[in-house]
Amino acid sequence: MDAALHPDCEYFGASKILLSRRNVLNPSKTIVCLAYFPRFMYGCDAERAGLYAPRPARGAMQQSPPGGILTSAEADSASSKRRGNSNKTMAQAKKGQPRAEKPVSLKILADYLGLCPATVSLVLNNVPGRSIPQETRERVRAAARKFNYQPSLIARSLRKQRTFTVGVLVPELSDGYHTMVMSGIGDHLMQEGYFYFSAHHRHKPDLVEEYPRLLMGRGAEGIIAIDTALEHELSVPVVAVAGHKQIAGVTNVMLDHRHAAELALRHLHQLGHRHIAFMRGQPFSSDSNDRWKSIVAVARELGIEIRPELTIQLEKDLTSPELGYPVVQQLLSHKRKFTALVSFNDIAAIGAIRALRDANLSVPEDVSVVGFDDIRAAAYHNPSLTTIRQPLHDMGQSAARILLQRIQGFKDYPKECAVPPELIIRESTAPASGRSHSR
């Protein structure tokens, strides 16, 4: 590089530093003066862009000192400017004019109010049991709004050695079961002043294994796993919604599936249904095995035969009515008689009803359908869906509450929390008719 084209090159020449384009681009072969490096690289970029105007080179002994080393006069001038800027900042704060380019700190806010930072912090964090006059509290909040003051979560974390952050593992984020649980989790965490990260894994074992480590690496103090097949203990407290495995350090929040099976099958039995088709959940769903075992046990007690030819298995990882549509089409193709269908969930039930209608069967006149979960769409479908309600929002809140208690050091926490289901009777079930529905 020609020193005449780039005056900063003379510094390297005087210092006997080998300078070339290749060496500049190869950090292992070049030693660059740190004081000159930013200006030097800027010059390189400018020259490549054709923006650097040539100017005469100075002698090797006339080079300027590095930019990071100031003469005493320059240092005094810079120091004076810094003091002036600092005084100007404080003056702006006291005049109610926060700097636009930099957030107002707690100290500046406290100086503006004439209070100590601790008092301002107590008010803004709503710390109970402090005798701070209401008038003072209102002044603090008004000033915080005026300056758009935002507390530093990093400073808070360093001070308390806490992150106030939770990780949430979920299979997917579409509308339905998982988002209703997450709404309960989010509401409780927001109320308690916690933040959360969510990660969806689509039931992939490698992601289920990796994501907890990633969340903990980002400061998560605990994990809530929704419909997630955990395999082992983690180093932080864990609450599993729809968790069924007994794992050390994991609290399971789940539905009472035995009671749910009793509600669904007794309802159909009382309506006179004896030829009932059943839909089993996907193997990767956390509730599938326990729900099916409960259905089999209750059906045996009621004398309802579970026939293999009337049992359909879900396989696809879908969260739309498409989940239930093709399997019911397949069931109808077998020409077997049934008057009722117990679906694995509401989404699949909605797809099943469409398949029945496309086969010229009416719901509930020809076939009654029972769903599971009571998602928001269940009440507004036509016909509205009879279903087993899981209190999904409440389950999310319970999971978040238990997790925060464990994070805060509570030792007396439940290992398992069973939630009662509820039968919601709507328009999709009716007494069994005498007609054969095997078309």
Name the descriptors.
434 Repressor (Amino-terminal Domain), elongated, alpha/beta, 12 strands, 439 residues, Rossmann fold, 12% strand, 6-stranded mixed beta sheet, 6-stranded parallel beta sheet
Structure commentary:
The protein is α/β, with parallel strands linked by helices and 439 residues long. The chain has four domains: 9-62, no CATH class; 82-151, 434 Repressor (Amino-terminal Domain); 161-252, 3-Layer(aba) Sandwich (Rossmann fold), CATH 3.40.50.2300; 257-390, Rossmann fold. 40% of the residues lie in helices and 12% in strands. The protein contains 15 helices and twelve strands. A six-stranded parallel sheet has the order 2-1-3-4-5-11, with helices on both faces. It has a six-stranded mixed sheet with strand order 7-6-8-9-10-12, with helices on both faces. Strand 6, helix 12 and strand 7 (311-313) form a beta-alpha-beta unit. Helix 11 (257-270) packs across helix 12 (288-302).
CATH superfamily of the largest domain: Response regulator
Cα Rg: 34 Å
Quickly give the CATH architecture of the largest domain: 3-Layer(aba) Sandwich
What helical percentage do the residues reach?
40-55%
Taken from the alpha-carbon principal axes, the silhouette is elongated
- Report the sheet-strand fraction: 5-15%
Q: Class of the largest domain in CATH?
A: Alpha Beta
Low-confidence stretches: 1-22, 27-42, 44-80
Largest sheet: 6 strands, parallel
Number of helices: 15
Tell how many strands the DSSP assignment holds: 12
Instruction: Identify the strand order in the major beta sheet.
Output: 2-1-3-4-5-11
Overall pLDDT confidence? 81
* H-E string: HHHHHHHHEHEHEEEHEHEHEHEEHEE
Given helix and strand content, the structural type is alpha/beta
Total domains, how many? 4
Termini Cα gap: 86 Å
CATH topology of the largest domain: Rossmann fold
